[in-house]
Amino acid sequence: MNGGADLGGMMGFGPVAPEADEPLFHAPWEARALGMVVALGACGQWNIDAARSAREDMHPGDYTRTPYYAIWLKAAKRLMVEKEMLTEAEIAQGVPLIAATSIKRRLAAEDVDAMLSAGGPADRPEQGEPAFAVGDQVRTINDHPTTHTRMARYARDKVGTITKVHGFHVFPDSNAQGQGEDPQWLYQVAFSARTLWGAQGREGDSVTLDLWEPYLRTVL
Amino acid sequence: MTSHDHDHDHSHLTETEARVRALESLLSAKGYIDSAAVDRIIQTYETKIGPRNGAHVVAKSWVEPEFEAWLRRDASAAIHSLGYHSRQGEHIEAVFNADDVHHLVVCTLCSCYPWSVLGLPPTWYKSPPFRSRAVIDPRGVLAEFGLTLAPTTRVEVHDSTAEIRYLVIPQRPEGTEGLTMDQLAELVTRNAMIGTGLARAPQVAS
């Protein structure tokens, strides 16, 4: 979706403001939010692409002004309501009002290390051959889905060069909508800054994006 | 709880704390999460998984050519071999700075970051100013971090749009020939591994 999260190239946000000696968490609630969101992910009721989709589906003005962990919590609450794990009334009152939904698993403290260590690899057994090879020129699609995509707006309908074939990875556009992983070949594609930004791009500079095959077309 | 006599920021924070605590209680009561697991996750990122992991990877690549070659060939395997194997580090690319190229990592679409080697991202990395400008004005962004590159150094920005995480291998500073791997790792800052900084110069012995 062309939402508030798709920030590449936007202007008006002012300078980057790195904090000296920034703490890992600025308040206790940030730490709890991190831990809860990671633990909820382990319940298996949604995948990472659905979580990203829920985070970016906010009013763009709200998205750009909301602290990151608050965006995470807001999306987690929304997903839990959608998956009928919670009701809005329960969130408002802070007490259970309906029976809990059965979840795939509840993460126990003794399983945290193994869960973090296992992570969630996105590569899948390869099927067929990649359509593109390193050095090939490709043009990105000009497509504006209203649903989740990782084809950043600023790099749509642009010609780039394949710089790496990463492998065969879960396709977020499908996975975010619960339509299956539909794995696809994933490439690193380099675009010159001039191609992306015209006169504002500096000659010689470049940006790479990691893009799935359905985002790419052959340049004849 | 009412605390209207507090200043606005304080009471806002207090409300947020209370709301998040209430949510955690609710999720525990419904059997979805275990607060001890939440504690354990937090402790892991406070004490075990942070930029010292990445600094070790960088320092090892500076002193062991075979490890550097492995990082270039298959960074995921090379990094996993050191035990840095955890979520948001499943697939890693190492990108090497040199005199003629400087790498900068961003995630314009969200906050993708190599947790397994750098820990949790700093707030600025997740915020609109960095995410919007790193791709269109990387040199302006670097200048805000106090970094001005030679005009002959090209900038290659890596927008983490998939599940590949990027780790910048900064150049080894001059005058570090006699240092041990541990001493070298001390020179490798988090920002140097994002590309918004360089490795620190060694302190001159007094």
Give a description of the structure:
The complex is a heterodimer of chains A (220) and B (206). Chain A is of the alpha+beta class. Chain A has 2 domains: 28-118, Orthogonal Bundle (Cyclin A, domain 1), CATH 1.10.472; 137-218, SH3 type barrels (Roll). In chain A, 30% of the residues lie in helices and 15% in strands. Chain A is built from 8 helices and 5 strands; from the N terminus they run H-H-H-H-H-H-E-E-H-E-H-E-E. In chain A, helix 1 packs parallel to helix 4 and helix 2 (48-56) crosses helix 4 (68-82). Chain B has 206 residues and is mainly alpha-helical. In chain B, helix 3 (51-63) packs antiparallel against helix 4 (65-80). Chain B is globular. Mean pLDDT of chain B is 94; it is low at 1-7. At the A-B interface, helix 1, helix 2, helix 4, helix 6 and strand 2 of A face helix 1, helix 2, helix 6, helix 7 and helix 8 of B. Strand 4 (206-212) of chain A pairs parallel with strand 3 of chain B, so a sheet runs across the interface.
Tally of helical runs of chain A: 8
**Oligomeric status:** heterodimer
Q: What is the spatial order of strands in the main beta sheet of chain A?
A: 4-3-2-1-5
State the CATH architecture of the largest domain in chain A.
Answer: Orthogonal Bundle
CATH homology superfamily name of the largest domain in chain A: Nitrile hydratase, beta subunit
* Share of helical residues of chain A: 25-40%
> How far do the termini of chain B sit from each other?
57 Å
Class of the largest domain in chain B, according to the CATH hierarchy?
Alpha Beta
EC number (chain B): 4.2.1.84
Domain Nitrile hydratase alpha/Thiocyanate hydrolase gamma (chain B): 15-196
Binding site for Fe(3+) (chain B): 107, 110-112
InterPro entries (chain B): CN_Hdrase_a/SCN_Hdrase_g_sf, CN_Hdrtase_a/SCN_Hdrlase_g, CN_Hdrtase_asu/SCN_Hdrlase_gsu, Nitrile_hydratase_asu
